[in-house]
Write a structure and sequence with these properties.
The protein has 167 residues and is of the alpha+beta class. The chain has a domain at 103-167. It has 3 helices and 6 strands, in the order βαβαβββαβ. It has helices at 45-51, 84-87, 127-136; strands at residues 35-39, 68-72, 90-91, 94-95, 111-115, 146-150. Strand 3 (90-91) and strand 4 (94-95) form a beta hairpin. The protein is elongated, with a radius of gyration of 23 Å. The relative contact order is 0.13.
C-alpha cells in the first residue's frame, strides 16, 4: 500500500527582528521582536566548567567549550498556535488548556484552505463567511480538520504593512 500523506511546513524563518512592530506600536513596554544572542566557545567555558565538576578550562580542547545560541521572542512572533488559555482562564467550565497541554494530534490532520482574499484589511470574518467559503469548495468540516484562512496578508510579511494598512 502506498501512503500519500503529504506534510506542508508553514513555519516562518526565525531571525533577528522577526515581528518588529511599526512606529505606532512603540508605546509597548517591551519590543516583542525576536532577539538572537550567539555565545562564543570562549564565553561558554565558565558554563561548561560549572556543568562538569572536576574539569577546568585547560581540560577543554584549545581551552574552548561549545558555542550556543539564545533565542528570545514573543509567542505571536512567527508561526504559532494560540492555546485556549491565551483567550481566557476557563473554557467549557474547566481550566483552559495551555499550549503544552494541547494534544499533538491536534497539529497533524487534514487541512482545508478557505479563501477570504475578498475581505478588506480590518474586515471581520463571520461564521456566515466560513459557511459560504465551505459551500463554495463543497466541503464539510470533520473533527480535527485544520482550517487555514487565506487573507492575502502573507504578501506583506516582514514589512510594516503586515501590521497596519496605514503605513
Amino acid at each position: 500500500m502506498v501512503n500519500n500523506t503529504r506534510f506542508v511546513d508553514l513555519s516562518l524563518e526565525i531571525k533577528e527582528g522577526l515581528g518588529d512592530l511599526p512606529p505606532k506600536f512603540k508605546y509597548l513596554e517591551e519590543n516583542l521582536s525576536a532577539k538572537i544572542k550567539h555565545a562564543s566557545h570562549k564565553e561558554n567555558v565558565s558554563i561548561m566548567v560549572k556543568s562538569f565538576p572536576g574539569i577546568s578550562g585547560e581540560d577543554l580542547p584549545d581551552g574552548l567549550a561549545w558555542a550556543d545560541d539564545f533565542l528570545s521572542l514573543g509567542v505571536h512572533m512567527g508561526t504559532h498556535m494560540d492555546a485556549p488559555w491565551h483567550y481566557h482562564p476557563t473554557s467549557e467550565g474547566k481550566k483552559s488548556k495551555t499550549i503544552d497541554e494541547i494534544p499533538i494530534e491536534y497539529c497533524f490532520s487534514d487541512g482545508v484552505v478557505l479563501d477570504m482574499t475578498h475581505k478588506e484589511p480590518g474586515d471581520l470574518i463571520s461564521s456566515d463567511d466560513i459557511q459560504e467559503a465551505l459551500q463554495k469548495i463543497d466541503y464539510t468540516l470533520k473533527s480535527l480538520d485544520i482550517v487555514l484562512i487565506r487573507t492575502g496578508a502573507d504578501k506583506y510579511w516582514d514589512t510594516l504593512k503586515f501590521w497596519t494598512d496605514d503605513t
